Amino acid sequence: MEFETLVQSRRSVRGFKQQPVPRAVIEAIIESAKRAPSSMNTQPWHVHVLTGPPLEELRRRNMEEMVGGAKVKRDIISHGEYQGIHRTRQVDIAKKLFGAMGIERDDKPMRQDWVLRGFRQFDAPVSLVLTYDRVLDPGAVCHFDLGALCYGIVLAAWDRGLGSVINGQGIMRSDIVREVAKIPEDEVIMTCVAMGYPDDSFAANAVRSDREGNDDFVRYVGFAD
Fold it and tell me: Could you tell me which residues are beta bridge partners of residue 73?
């Protein structure tokens, strides 16, 4: 698939078929994605791929902790709640998703279930936990590298018929993720990618987020025209 077509067609998938993803397919995805840009070729990343009973245990414990009122415990520093235009964009996509799913504003059980889907990693059959070497902290450069790898993963997955959603809710209890996935202490857990074959009957999968016009965030300097 042409790269531009691939980027334009890819979307976040929040509903998955309960169909196993072969390990060979995931290996091929990572093989492609690891060509992502890396500062001075440092390749600070690690990928921990979970499926089956370990992923189910992670889902269960993550949900139990969050439903029980446990505090968020992530390895990475959080910006806190979004404000201003960032909050507006967050609310806008939530409205589109709730509208597609027929979730009314006053339907608290369904709204809560939607939140819990994130903690369950959207019931995807595979989760890729992305980490980087702790010795590089604090370091925006290694964060940038990991973001490049992450985007490479989701594009390579889409090219092979797999959907994905980059899912910060899945690692909100990083201590549980570390224990279940047996992630060494010298790695920082940054995010995870829920992955599987898209369920086209799941209404939210058809939702596309809005993007600002280029004039709102792009400047051209030194061009004759």
Answer: 173
Sole residue written with tokens 């890819």:
10
Amino acid of residue 45: W
Average pLDDT over residues 76-92: 87
- Encode pLDDT of 16-47 as tens digits: 998 999 999 999 999 999 999 999 999 999 99
73 touches 174 (CB < 8 A): yes
Instruction: Say how far apart CA 69 and CA 209 lie, in whole Å.
Output: 30
User: Does 218 score more than 90 pLDDT?
Assistant: yes
Contact 192, 167 (CB under 8 A): yes
Q: 45 by DSSP, 3-state: which?
A: strand
CB 196 within 8 A of CB 202: no
Nearest one of 46, 43, 16, 18 to 157, comparing CA atoms = 16
How much is the pTM? 0.90
Strands 45-51 and 126-133: antiparallel
pLDDT above 70 for 1:
no
Q: Pick from 196, 136, 130: which is nearest to 163 by CA?
A: 196
> What Å distances lie between residue 186 and 45, 120, 127, 144, CA to CA?
12, 26, 21, 19
